[in-house]
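wait is this the right file?? whatever heres the structure
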């Protein structure tokens, strides 16, 4: 390899390296696209309606890091054999997959309360839906502002 071709190679390689390390212009930064959360929720509940209330979703309204976000859901239910929470579903509108987690419960759980930590891809709405033993669905929604996003990988097609 001659001196000229080596210099040309180093110039091109250095330019490519600088281009990949340089921050993207503000106009090129895209928000995480909305996923198909409404369609996934509709598949879960079918033709039944979702009523607001009885569910308390607790997520901080502002999180600095989307990689580790505390989340808890409490459902007002006596948790008896005749009247209990069968499942708690948590959905997000901007994570790669809309259904974040499902907790299966029964009357022996004692109380309908779950706590975990989740990842949030971007500023978005988080929805908790409780499925009760009588076939009804109850929900709560919280808007969460995320300053450092997580879940940036692509969703499977």
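ok assuming it is, sequence goes like this
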């Amino acid at each position: 390899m001659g001196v000229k071709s080596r210099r040309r190679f180093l110039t091109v390689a250095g330019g490519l390296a600088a281009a990949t390390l340089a921050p993207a212009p503000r106009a090129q930064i895209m928000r995480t696209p909305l996923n198909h959360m409404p369609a996934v929720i509709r598949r879960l509940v079918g033709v039944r309606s979702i009523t607001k209330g009885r569910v308390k979703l607790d997520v901080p309204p502002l999180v600095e890091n989307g990689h580790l976000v505390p989340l808890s859901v409490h459902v007002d239910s006596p948790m008896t054999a005749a009247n209990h929470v069968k499942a708690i579903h948590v959905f997000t509108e901007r994570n790669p997959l809309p259904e974040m987690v499902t907790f299966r419960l029964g009357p022996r759980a004692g109380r309908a309360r779950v706590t975990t930590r989740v990842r949030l891809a971007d500023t978005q709405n988080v929805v908790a839906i409780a499925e009760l033993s009588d076939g009804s669905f109850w929900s709560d929604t919280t808007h969460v502002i995320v300053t450092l996003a997580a879940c940036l990988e692509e969703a499977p097609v």
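Confidence is low (pLDDT under 50) at residues 24-29. so i think its the right one actually
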